[in-house]
Amino acid sequence: MRAWIVAGLLVACGPPKAAEAPRPAGPTCASAAAHMVDEMAAGKDPRPPDETINALIELIRVRCEQDRWTAPAVACLDAMTSAADADHCSSMLTEDQQAALVRDQDARRGEPAK
Questions:
Q1: Cis amide prior to 46 (ω within 30 degrees)
Q2: Is the pLDDT of residue 4 over 90?
Q3: pLDDT of 21
Q4: Cβ contact 86:96 at 8 Å
Q5: Of residues 23, 44, 47, 31, the one with CA closest to residue 79
Q6: What pLDDT is stored for residue 96 in this prediction?
Q7: What pLDDT, in 10s, does the model give residues 18-60?
Q8: I need a labelling partner for 48 at 20 to 30 A (CA). Which of 58, 64, 105, 108 fits?
Q9: d(CA 27, CA 35)
Q10: Burial 44-57 (b: 16+ CB within 10 A, else e)
C-alpha cells in the first residue's frame, strides 16, 4: 500500500523541473548596450528610427560579448547618463576593443575601413 502512495505522490508532483541557468551577477552586455543607446537617443530630436536604434544596440552587444569587455566597463555603460560618462566608460576598453567597435560602426554606416 505504501508503494502506491509513494508512486501517487511522484506522479502528482510531475517530472522535476529543469534547472534554470544562473543569472549574471551584474549588468549584461545586452542591458548595457540598450541603456547606452537609449541614453544617447534620448537627446536626439527627432529620435532615430527604432530599426536604427535596434541595430546599434545589437552592434554594441555583439562587440561587448565577442571582445569580452570587462565587468567594470559594462557596469559603467549600464549606468551612464551623459556623453561625458560614455567617454569615461570607453576609456575602460582596450585599444583593440575600441577599434573593433569603431570599425563595425563605420561598416554599418557604409564608410570605408580606416
A1: yes
A2: no
A3: 59
A4: no
A5: 31
A6: 97
A7: 556 565 578 999 999 999 999 989 888 899 999 999 999 999 9
A8: 64
A9: 10
A10: eeeeeeeeebeebb
Give the CA distances from residue 49 to residues 31, 41, 107, in Å, rounded to whole numbers and listed in that order. 19, 10, 19
What's the alpha-carbon Rg for the chain, to the nearest Å? 22
**What residues have CB less than 8 Å from 93, skipping those under 6 apart?**
67, 69, 73, 101
In angstroms, the CA 90 to CA 5 distance is: 62
Position 18, amino acid: A
Secondary structure of residue 64 in the 3-state scheme? helix
C-alpha cell of residue 54:
535596434
> Could you read off the pLDDT of 66-103 as tens digits, one per residue?
999 999 999 999 999 988 998 999 999 999 999 999 99
Cell, residue 28: 549584461
Ramachandran quadrant class, 94 (left: phi over 0; alpha: psi -120 to 50; beta: rest): beta
